[in-house]
Amino acid sequence: MKKFLALACFTGLLVTSCSDDDTVMEEEMTPQEPIVYTSGTADFSNYVALGNSLTAGFSDAALFRAGQEASYPNMLAQNFALAGGGEFTIPFMADDLGGATLGGQPILGNRLILSFASGSPAPVPVSGQGSTEISNRLSGPFNNMGVPGAKSYHLLAPGYGSVAGVPQGTANPYYARFASAEDATVLGDAAAQNPTFFSLWIGNNDVLGYVTAGGAGVDQTGNLDPSTYGGSDISDPMVLGGAITQILTTMTANGAKGVMANLPDVTSIPFLNTVPHNPVPLDQATADLLNGAYAAYNQALLAFSTNQNPLGTPLISPEEAQKRTISFEAGSSNPVVLLDEDLTDLTAVSPALINMRQATEEDLLVLTSQTIIGTLANPNDPTSINGVAVPLADQWVLTPEEQETANTALVAYNQIIAGLASQFDVALVDANSLLVELGTTGFTLADGSVVTADFGTGGGFSLDGVHPSPRGYAILATAFTEAINEKYGSNLPEVNPLAFTGLYLE
């Protein structure tokens, strides 16, 4: 009897368990209601993207088909399609190499790949000749109007897409491929499509050229004539503000809504945070030799910081003399020697007292400086080692003073952008904070992996150290999506970064 009761109890539990399982199975098999995506107060039926290389999908130092497909506007367009968005056309390059010709002559280089030929990974151009011919103008219109290299005022410039102007440097080869006419403007071609929604991310190149050139350009603040600017110059904030005002006025004239982004801190990109300030290895004999060669320079600096010099009065402070003193030691971490235009010019007293010093942790060496440090300035002189016996030129290092110049411009730009976003009632993406987060804590993805700004391994940036990787663009696309949802009441889904690669393979 007891056995029976025990069996009965077991059977009851089994029945109960089976009944519960049936309930669970029924719940699991109950189809979920499909998500209905809406555009809120926005209209995504005709979306046009305006901007520069970041909008075009530039990556690994080139524009190529796969990169264009992984552009953040194309990701947004795929989201928009869930809520009434229409076709999104792209002015595709001819292949995935990225190179291009003009009249059969190469003018644009191929994309970079990671090569292990030297024994350690290094970015090198992929082999082959790109089949994109600039003079073969594409027939538009195109929804992605991102033009690599464009500054804010370039979007308003007639002839910026002139094929005839490309050899003279007065036109942009990327825009020349798909401009509607020789005298067309990027803004005009975008507005002619009568978009219902637009994105705008412009202004990066108004300061980025200065930064990537190691501060070799000119801060044009106070100069309102952009026709006099050089490619590496910083644009006057009023010039940038005027250009963006005209763009927003034109794009919103027929009631289109939009989203725009502010500008990230360009000094935080891997291009400026990969090469260490102290990469020079020396043995004791070489260190002694160099210290002997710089002894006269150091002694002169000391003399000119006191009254003990031919002029009888100090020309520099003791602090500057110490800053300029050059000293090497045996080991693997000697700082490079560089030119610094912000030091006191002593060459009128002695041509040998050039404005040089050794780098500190505050100096940012550009990524491309790794190709020059340790090479010979004069192939016939084995002692003319760049960064050691020969100081690095201004273009290879962004000094703290130059960083401050760039940051001042950036702060002014972002204040203007924030004000204009409010004035024209468009959504605003805080790309600046986003890139800071990427460079500090990184982004943790659904699988537990972390995307950072570390060069080559972080997954957020491509091999040029300036432009995002596909995964980085996906993170940006999510930020744009969130800003759009918040502003217009849409419910578009986030873009999954795991659906995109951290680096392209060959």
Automatic annotation (TrEMBL):
Domain of life (superkingdom): Bacteria
Transmembrane annotation, as ranges: none
GO molecular function per UniProt: phosphatidylcholine lysophospholipase activity
Family annotation (InterPro entries): Ester_Hydrolysis_Enzymes, SGNH_hydro_sf
Signal peptide residues on this chain, from the entry's feature table: 1-20
Keyword Hydrolase attached: yes
SUPFAM superfamilies from the UniProt entry: SGNH hydrolase (SSF52266)
Swiss-Prot/TrEMBL keywords: Hydrolase, Signal
Protein name: GDSL-like Lipase/Acylhydrolase
Annotated organism of origin: Croceitalea dokdonensis DOKDO 023
